[in-house]
Specification:
This protein is mainly alpha-helical. Helices cover about 45% and strands about 0% of the residues. InterPro entries: IS402-like_dom (IPR025161).
Length: about 180
């Protein structure tokens, strides 16, 4: 003899009553339907059991529409980069490259005049642009495009400039004083 389990609390004979109650109050909540069902039958069921009985009776719950007039949402305010940020001037090979105006502002920090030793193979501007490319794109040093100096040269220059900055490099002192104001 197969096991049939416990008899359902809300049997199939109650489905017409559930249908009648649901059609009489189409926008009532499930709890309100449960109360009306309990008032007529005296049967109390768990909310999950009641929801299952509604589903078996073929009753689909409909949410009440919000009262009031429909107002479309306000357009979102744009943020982030604009077309002015994305423009590329003729002297820029990549969007991360410095413009001539930007280079004139920072050239005195990176150009060394009258230094000893072998003259540099690559201009400081090219090395700085390569560093900016890595920082802006997030690529690894080894993935620098071939238009830039070798990645090892760029990385060592970046590390050298970082060490100079951390050690309180004197040409940057006026910049720090201006930033502190």
């Amino acid at each position: 003899m197969p096991k049939t389990g416990r008899p359902p609390v809300i049997a199939a004979e109650h489905y017409p009553l559930l249908t009648r109650l649901a059609h009489a109050q189409p926008y009532s909540s499930q709890a309100e339907l449960e109360q009306a069902f309990h008032a007529e039958t005296g049967i109390t069921a768990h909310p999950d059991t009641f929801a299952k009985a509604l589903k078996l009776a073929g009753i689909v719950r409909v949410k009440e529409r919000a009262k009031g007039s429909f107002q479309p949402p306000e357009p979102r305010k744009s943020y982030g980069y604009t077309e002015a940020h994305r423009r590329q001037l003729p002297e820029q090979r990549y969007p991360s490259c410095l413009t001539d105006a930007e280079w004139t502002l920072v050239a005195d920090l990176f150009e060394v005049s009258g230094g000893r030793g072998v003259p540099p193979r690559h201009s400081r501007r090219t090395l700085l642009e390569a560093c900016c490319y890595v920082v802006r794109t997030g690529c690894s040093w080894r993935m620098l495009p071939h238009e830039f100096p070798h990645w090892d040269n760029v990385y060592k220059t970046f590390r050298w400039w970082s060490c100079l900055l951390c050690s309180g490099w004197t040409p940057l002192a006026p910049w720090y004083r201006l930033a502190a104001l």
